[in-house]
């Protein structure tokens, strides 16, 4: 391993800035998609809204005074890609949310290859290959999104984790879990504590508040495991 390889610094694409003409309208659109609202802050001539697709490591930020693009250039983002594991399920979800979305299509010359005439072909990839089936939609400002179905990732497409387990952080979260589990344990029939801990920890690690994680764990116990109040 070379010295340069040893000194390579982690760089994670976490935020994409979008230009929009109406912040509230854009916020409502992405909330309708089910995206998580991370923050909405304002002051003076500035407003910043950050939202994150479900289970995504990357977010979008839009607002007022966010980008250097002229207000008239809203909708300048093109080809923003959302990876999904089932294009048909994702399409049905968008339609149910009243989003104007295209039919499923594939590229005649391969993914993203628009160098040929009529590059988009109606229907799924004929060979049903991972990476090859798409759908598209736009937000109210014309920022264009692509859904790309990825069922199996090609070799080398996943980084090996170099992060050591944060024992102190995990211990704190486990302590928090124990505290919130107490009320359920006192009021419900005997059960295995880990059955409650697992959905609580999962919800917290996916961004839920302690209150929502508690509700999720309670639902799991009562609806799935049928652990009912005494």
Give a short overview.
The chain is an alpha/beta fold. The chain folds into three domains: 13-66, 2,3-Dihydroxybiphenyl 1,2-Dioxygenase, domain 1, CATH 3.10.180; 75-153, Roll (2,3-Dihydroxybiphenyl 1,2-Dioxygenase, domain 1); 167-224.
CATH topology of the largest domain: 2,3-Dihydroxybiphenyl 1,2-Dioxygenase, domain 1
Taking strands numbered 1, 2, ... along the chain, how are they ordered across the largest sheet? 1-4-3-2
Q: What is the helix tally?
A: 6
Strand content: 15-25%
Rg (CA only): 22 Å
| Spans of at least 5 consecutive residues with low confidence | none
Average pLDDT metric: 87
Q: What is the level-2 CATH architecture name of the largest domain?
A: Roll
Major sheet details: 4 strands, mixed
Number of strands: 9
Instruction: Report the structural category.
Output: alpha/beta
- N-to-C series of helices and strands: HEHEEEEHEEEEHHH
CA-CA gap between termini: 61 Å
Count of folded domains = 3
- At the first level of CATH, the class of the largest domain is Alpha Beta
By CATH's scheme, which homologous superfamily of the largest domain applies? Answer: 2,3-Dihydroxybiphenyl 1,2-Dioxygenase, domain 1
Question: Helix coverage percent of residues?
Answer: 25-40%
**In one word, what is the shape?**
globular
């Amino acid at each position: 391993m070379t010295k340069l390889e040893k000194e390579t610094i982690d760089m994670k694409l976490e935020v994409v800035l979008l230009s929009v003409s109406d912040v509230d309208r854009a916020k409502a659109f992405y909330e309708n998609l089910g995206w998580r609202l991370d923050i909405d802050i304002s002051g003076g001539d500035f407003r910043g809204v950050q939202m994150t697709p479900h289970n995504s490591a990357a977010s979008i930020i839009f607002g007022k005074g966010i980008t250097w693009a002229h207000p008239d250039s809203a909708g300048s983002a093109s080809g923003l890609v959302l990876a999904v594991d089932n294009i048909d399920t994702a399409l049905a979800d968008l339609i149910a949310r009243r989003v104007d979305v295209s039919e499923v299509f594939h590229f005649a010359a391969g993914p993203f290859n628009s160098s040929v005439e009529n590059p988009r072909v109606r229907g799924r990839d004929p060979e049903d290959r991972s990476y090859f089936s798409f759908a598209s939609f736009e937000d109210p400002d014309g920022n264009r999104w692509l859904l790309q179905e990825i069922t199996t990732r090609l070799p080398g497409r996943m980084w090996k984790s170099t992060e050591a387990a944060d024992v102190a952080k995990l211990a704190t979260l486990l302590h928090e879990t124990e505290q919130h589990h107490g009320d359920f344990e006192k009021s419900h029939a005997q059960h295995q504590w880990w059955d409650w801990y697992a959905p609580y920890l999962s919800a917290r690690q996916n961004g839920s508040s302690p209150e929502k994680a508690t509700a999720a764990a309670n639902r799991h116990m009562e609806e799935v495991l049928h652990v009912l109040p005494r």
